[in-house]
From TrEMBL:
Gene3D superfamilies: 3.30.420.40. Binds 1 Fe(2+) ion per subunit. It comes from Stakelama saccharophila. Its EC number is 2.3.1.234. Fe cation binds at H111, H115, D298. This is tRNA N6-adenosine threonylcarbamoyltransferase. Substrate binds at L134, V135, S136, G137, G138, D167, G180, E184, N270. Keywords: Acyltransferase, Cytoplasm, Iron, Metal-binding, Transferase, tRNA processing. CDD domains: ASKHA_NBD_TsaD_bac. Its main location: cytoplasm. SUPFAM superfamilies: Actin-like ATPase domain.
Amino acid sequence: ALILGLESSCDETAAALITSDRDVLSHKLAGQEAAHAPYGGVVPEIAARAHVEILGPLIEAAFAESGKTLADVDAIAATAGPGLIGGVMVGLVTAKALALASAKPLVAVNHLEGHALSPRLADASLEFPYLLLLVSGGHCQLLLVEGVGRYRRLATTIDDAAGEAFDKTAKLLGLGFPGGPAVERAAAKGDPQSVKLPRPLLGSREPHFSFAGLKSAVLRARDAGTHSAQDIAASFQQAVVDCLTDRTRGALEQAAEATALVVAGGVAANQAVRGNLEALAAEAGLRFVAPPLWLCTDNAAMIGWAGAERYAAGLTDPLDIAARARWPLDANAEKVRGAGV
Ligand code: ATP
Ligand code: MG
Ligand code: FE
């Protein structure tokens, strides 16, 4: 089947054409970094307006590059949440209009399911169930991925998401926006052992994450003025990696049925994060799967792929389905301590 995927939940506008055989015929992406940089973070109203302007031309470009037309498409998939509601609505309404005009089915995709299934787009041999560390700008969760639409959440963050911690640290250290790649670049020039930073919840029985204390410690280290931004960035990154690895090690014990350890989401683009999780998987005798970097951060190929998986399972949606600012991936989300969804 041929799927058109649309993504507009944050500050990336994207459109992709992808087949259920994992053929990415085209993927187009427009970031909005320059528009948001002066504010040091994503401004929802600016993002929504930018999506309105860019999405149409991007869809046309995606079709042009693929050599396909709307008539060739079997289903139209778009992010329906969670995210900045104005942006989500732009993509979802566009998908509904295309679905209506072409009489093709709509697939409303949870953005987190896009991240969660992206490793299966990258690696055709990745089977369910797998243990997923989902680390992105708004989320930090450990999930047992049992199948399409079947997610068991083992852990979440009780305060900040991992990507949020990178972004805030970058802001505190004046490294620029978006923060993750900036911190990684600075960290490469620093000593990860130089600044003593906390490892919140390390070794605790509960598998959850916490990054707010780490951020405060970064602020204190900066104000002490005794270390370079590179050293603080390197020490911060090491602390995050230690926490992610420790919590994931704990979750592996609860997920004996997992066939692989998998990481996805924007922070999965970080080489230190990838390297340490790969080592953990080797230690546990499990295979390790991480999508290529372009598939870690927001993109429409992963939304198209989640759409392909859902379409194959017969999971299409009515045209009156609503956009959702919040949309936990697992059905039992409310039962897990802490907000973080
Ligand atoms: P969510 O998916 O939770 O709704 P989002 O879509 O905004 O949030 P993603 O696009 O998946 O998040 O990821 C963006 C986040 O990833 C940002 O916080 C960014 O700083 C972080 N990030 C990107 N590249 C890197 C990197 N190389 N190292 C660390 N963090 C990174
Ligand atoms: Mg972004
Ligand atoms: Fe995302």
